[in-house]
Amino acid sequence: MKVLVGRLLIMTVAIIFAVSSFFPYISVAKTSPFDDISKSYAKNEIINLYNKNILTGTSATSFSPNRSVTRAEFITILDRLLGLEPVASPVTPYTDVKQNDWYYGFVQAAVQLELAKGKSTTTFAPEKSVTRQEAAVWMARALKQSGNKPIASTVFKDGSRIADWASASVAAAHKLGLIKGDKTGNFRPTAPISRQETAVLIDRVLQKEKWAAELQAKPKKRIVLGWQYGQTTAQYQNNILESNVNTLSPRWYFMDKNGDVTDNTDTALISWAKKNNKQVWAMVGNRFDQDATHQVLSNTMARNKLVNQLAEIVRQYGLQGLNIDFENVAPKDRQSFTAFITALAQKLHAQGAVLSVDVSPDLDTDWTDAFDYAALGKQADYMVMMGYDEHYGELSGAGSNASLPYVTNAINKLLKVVPSNKIILVLPFYNRDWTLKPNGAVSSSEFITLTRQNEMIDTFSLKPIWNEKLGQYVASYNKQYMKHTIWFEEGRSLIAKYHLIANKKLAGTAYWYIGGESKDVWSSIRNAEKYYDYSF
Asked: Which residues pair with 409 in a beta bridge?
């Protein structure tokens, strides 16, 4: 009998182990995850948010409900509520937020999206307690709520004590039922908000069905294109898997002066793309050769030959589309370039394929005179705006590769003649390290990847300063008695430009080029994709 009981016990344990292995979410949990919240008025809210991985304790068994919440803790809670990823960007304006701090990535995520700012341009004060009016400001900003009237003293007895910079946010949060006064009718704007008060505040957001649904919704599906450049197929594939790119553009095809196309198709990448649910819009280039381009475009027979070859390539390999990247096209070829795109669009559309055309910002120069933006926008499925090379060398002078005003102007100008749902904005995964003469003129500039740019922060102990107008960090250093300046491209600057895509309802984004990025930017971009699509 003892043997039988022992065997039954062993079998029971084995079954429980097997079940828990297949269903790891099945567990016997305590009624409360913390030992110190039984008397808290926010007990249910704390447990609810803990189970949603939004709130954690101050230890394995304690929540410390009456303790004030720090700025780092509140931002972390807010990020988790919004479903944001922590960001490991090496570029930060704050000297008191270190990369090895547990909250570093959460602060970075919030700052990049402009959800939170520091106490000064160089300090965030992460351990400082959050006041009730600060909490109202952060909540209103995160939920995209903006009050336009100061809080009336009739709402709270101490309404006159609410700071001017917080009054509109307090009004908005109160109107939405997120914040309330105490039993005496006071708001106590400068009093620290406690951890249990924070739990109630956050839980009230989730009690609004529309907001809860927004937080669970997936971002809108947009085109996310990434070009292959300087990488093997294996390297390119590995980078794509770490990204959110859904459309591949390998540089496979180039025209010659006779209208013939060099075919460098990698069928293995086509198969891989299909297996991984990626589109392939292969790039077609002109090798920057103005004379050869003119010779083909201006000759109807050669132009049609090129069109027919490209259409056959799409059919033969089952490509989903082409990306035309003709640069240094002569102004005199304006009409013939439009004719080429018109003919190619007809051929590809007959096959159900997509045609996208790369264009530079319209700066009223010879460089872009070949682009009839309105005509091209009617024929092509997408106009791909190359949002970079604002400053490119000695002729342009030193400066940003892609400042926010430069990109904004390029998009706004294109929107005058091309619908927003046909525009793809290209963001740069490369930068320049500018070497300057004593008088500030350009001595030289070095092409650098974002990874190399970030390495230079440690190498030269750089202290980047955020430039609100440009939407970029800027830093300088000295090397061999020469001054160097870098206008940074990283998560925050890329997000500032990505915001245009959401605001202007563009078709998507593209990146030149895959492999130039640092891995952290994908977390930043995913956060932007998610947050900017919320419509609370």
From this structure: none
Cα separation, 61 vs 36, whole angstroms? 8
Domain boundaries defined on the chain: 238-428+490-531
Q: Residue 235: count other Cβ atoms within 10 Å of its Cβ.
A: 13
238-428+490-531 maps to CATH 3.60.15.10 = no
Q: How far is CA 95 from CA 74, 101, 110, 439, in A?
A: 19, 12, 16, 31
Question: Counting beta carbons within 10 angstroms of the beta carbon of residue 419, is it exposed (0 to 12), middle (13 to 18) or buried (19 or more)?
Answer: middle
Question: What is the C-alpha to C-alpha distance for residues 326 and 125, in angstroms, rounded to an integer?
Answer: 50
Cis peptide before 50 (omega within 30 of 0): no
* Cα distance between residue 107 and residue 117, in whole Å: 9
Q: At what angle do helices 334-350 and 290-297 cross, to 10 degrees?
A: 70
Pairing of β 279-285 and β 223-228 = unpaired
Reduce the secondary structure of 324-379 to three states and give it as a string: EECCCCCHHHHHHHHHHHHHHHHHHHHCCCEEEEEECCCCCCHHHCCCCHHHHHHH
Residue listed under structure tokens 């949990």? 29
In DSSP notation, 142-172 reads: HTT----SPPPTTTSTTGGGS-HHHHHHHHH
pLDDT, averaged in runs of 10, over the chain (536 residues): 40 37 34 93 97 96 98 98 97 95 98 96 97 96 81 80 92 92 93 98 97 94 97 98 98 97 98 98 98 98 98 98 98 98 98 98 94 98 98 94 98 98 98 96 96 96 96 97 97 98 98 98 98 96
**Confidence (pLDDT) at 17:** 35
Rounded Cα distance between 71 and 116, Å, is: 10
For residue range 130-172, list pLDDT tens digits in order: 999 999 999 999 999 976 666 666 689 999 999 999 999 999 9
DSSP states of 452-505 as a string? Answer: HHHHHHHHTT---EEETTTTEEEEEEEETTEEEEEE--SHHHHHHHHHHHHHTT
Instruction: Name the residue among 31, 58, 61, 36 with its Cα closest to residue 47.
Output: 31
- Greatest CA separation for the chain: 100
> Are 305 and 346 contacting, i.e. CB atoms less than 8 angstroms apart?
no
Tokens representing 137 are 């400001």
Beta carbons within 8 Å of 477's beta carbon, 6+ residues apart: 456, 460, 461, 462, 483, 484
Answer for the pair 108, 473: CB distance below 8 angstroms, yes or no: no
Distance separating alpha carbons of residues 61 and 53, to the nearest angstrom: 15
What's the confidence (pLDDT) of residue 150?
65
Where b means 16+ CB within 10 Å and e means fewer, 450-467 reads bebbbebbeeeebebebb
